[in-house]
Design goal:
This protein folds into three domains: 59 residues, OB fold (Dihydrolipoamide Acetyltransferase, E2P); 75 residues, K homology (KH) domain (GMP Synthetase, Chain A, domain 3), CATH 3.30.300; 70 residues, K homology (KH) domain (GMP Synthetase, Chain A, domain 3, 2-Layer Sandwich), CATH 3.30.300. It has six helices and twelve strands. β9 and β10 form a beta hairpin.
Length: 226
């Protein structure tokens, strides 16, 4: 039985130009499926194999994807399986905006590792993501503390430049004040960094611009971006 998000190997049978897709057979399942080119990791040739997740099922029609968050989560769990088996980490969540060129992957440390320790532990494995994932993968340290998790989610922005944080857990909103010259970095191109962080954490994140007055002191601007 196939379920949405199921990771499965496939064999390319032929191209379907009218559908801009590949017709594939699911290995060991004997089921035909389509892998749309826009959801494919690369251009495939007939006879090539790969892995994809089940993206959609409509009657007998099965659609696969190598771009979905379910696929990236399964691939990350596969790549990081040695650390998962040792119960050092756990993959908590994956997020991506449609217009973004990256995924953010929240990873929880099960043995008290710091942000730096997690990255050092994962670095040898992350090189393998290029064999399965076309987009960049950004690791975020997960925390049960909502504020800490939200701050971590804004990487690769310079987190030490955050000057003030106001959180409203009752409405899942947080306002983060940063110096004027760092606003663009926290937002990211087309605001993709902050929007992906919001999707990852479930919080509406607003970046507040802090301007310097004539005396060089910082004061929060009323300009808010999200």
């Amino acid at each position: 039985m196939l379920n949405i998000g199921y990771l499965i190997p496939f064999l390319v049978i032929k191209a379907l130009p009218d559908y801009d897709s590949y017709l594939v057979t699911l290995i060991d399942k004997g089921v035909l499926a389509q892998l749309p080119r826009r959801y494919a990791f690369k251009d495939y040739k007939i006879g090539e194999t790969g892995w994809a997740s089940v993206f959609n099922i409509q009657g007998s029609r099965v659609t696969l994807s190598q771009k979905s968050t379910q696929y990236v989560r399964k691939i990350m769990e596969h790549i990081l399986s040695p650390l998962l088996k040792e119960k050092k980490i756990k993959v908590k969540r994956v997020a991506k905006m449609a217009a973004a060129s990256f995924f953010k992957v929240a990873v929880e440390s099960l043995c008290g590792m710091s942000n730096k320790d997690i990255l050092n532990e994962l670095r040898p494995y992350l090189k393998e993501t290029k064999d399965y994932i076309a987009e960049k993968v950004i690791i975020v340290k997960y925390s049960d503390d909502a504020l800490e998790y939200i701050i971590n989610s804004l990487v690769p922005a310079p987190l030490n430049r955050i000057e003030q944080i106001m959180i409203r857990k009752d409405i899942s909103q947080v306002k983060i004040s940063v110096p004027e010259k760092y606003v663009g970095i926290f937002l990211g191109p087309k605001a993709m960094n902050v929007l992906t962080a919001a999707k990852l954490t479930g919080y509406n994140i607003k970046i507040i611009e802090v301007k310097e007055d004539m005396n060089g002191n910082n004061e929060a601007s009323h300009d808010e971006t999200e």
